[in-house]
Amino acid sequence: MVWCSGWRLASAVSNAGGLGLIGAGSMHPEVLREHIQKCKTATVKPFGVNVPLMYPEIDKVMQIIVEEGVKIVFTSAGNPKIWTSFLKEKGIIVVHVIANAKFAQKCEEAGVDAIVAEGFEAGGHNGREETTTLCLIPHIRKITKLPLLAAGGISTGRAMLAAMALGADGVQVGTAFALAEESSASDAFKLRCLSLPEGDTILSLKKVSPTRIIKNDFFKQVEELENNGASGEELRTLLGKGRSKRGIFEGELSEGELEIGQGATLVTEILSVSQIIRNFVEEFNSAQLSLNPIN
């Protein structure tokens, strides 16, 4: 959710009955502080911050989270043992994002409060195992009793019901909210995502960090390098700095890195967060009733 989930989106999700998350991955520490403060003004409901553990200024980010009184932190892209104890000592609820069953055990050992299991369908950074949500949730449900949230491909109420049938206690939604009115992504990016045909996103950059992106001119350059056996360093050079900002936030559709999940093909219009959540709930209830009709 880099370049999508600032204070406007996070507060809108919380105000509509979900748990909004500020995406710290695209923010300098003091920018994150500003977003936390604005979010506290915009909602009285709980909200959290997602922190990729590979973040270069992680110490500053964690200190700001504590200073600003954030009560819920989702950690991702790293070992949960590194920061979980620190955060829990401060009275913060910790949820960790994983993409394989092996890390579920590490989450339990680290003492996290809940797990997000993110499948292959998800946008942005993804698991190297390429396990789909349909397979990942049952695997993890077997080995942990921790609260389990499903992520990856959850763009409809029916998908939410399916995830819960597989053993999830709830869901984490990315793509549908990335394309919401309150998302800070550019309108050009949102409209491009609305026009995607099935199969027009692909998991790429596997020698750097597997990332699901839209097929565009930048992807073609990546594909050519990968087909020619390019090293991770060569791919990092092509990626450079700010490639996702150019694509998602600034709307550079040709040379930008356009991160979005497979569920984008199920999103047909730009809606407010409140309407998206209403649609989810209505479709969930309708689908549940169709499976269990009242006699």
Report the sheet with the most strands, covering strand number, pairing sense and barrel closure. 7 strands, parallel
Can you identify the CATH class of the largest domain? Alpha Beta
* Class per helix and strand makeup: alpha/beta
State the end-to-end CA separation.
43 Å
Please render the helix and strand layout as text.
Layout: H1 7-15, E1 20-23, H2 29-42, E2 47-52, H3 58-67, E3 72-76, H4 84-89, E4 93-98, H5 101-110, E5 114-118, E6 124-125, H6 133-143, E7 148-151, H7 157-165, E8 170-172, H8 175-178, H9 187-194, E9 201-204, E10 211-214, H10 217-227, H11 232-239, H12 243-249, H13 273-291
Parallel strand pairs: 1-2, 2-3, 3-4, 4-5, 5-7, 7-8
Antiparallel strand pairs: 6-10, 9-10
Helix pairs in contact: 1-2, 2-3, 7-13
Question: Could you describe the 3D structure shown?
Answer:
The chain is α/β, with parallel strands linked by helices. The chain has 2 domains: 7-184 and 268-287, TIM Barrel (Alpha-Beta Barrel); 187-262, no CATH class. Helix content is 43%, strand content 15%. It is built from 13 helices and 10 strands. The protein has a 7-stranded parallel beta sheet with strand order 1-2-3-4-5-7-8. The chain has a 3-stranded antiparallel beta sheet with strand order 6-10-9, covered by helices on one side. Strand 9 (201-204) and strand 10 form a beta hairpin. Helix 1 (7-15) packs parallel to helix 2, helix 2 (29-42) packs parallel to helix 3 (58-67) and helix 7 crosses helix 13. The radius of gyration is 18 Å and the shape is globular. The N and C termini lie far apart (43 Å).
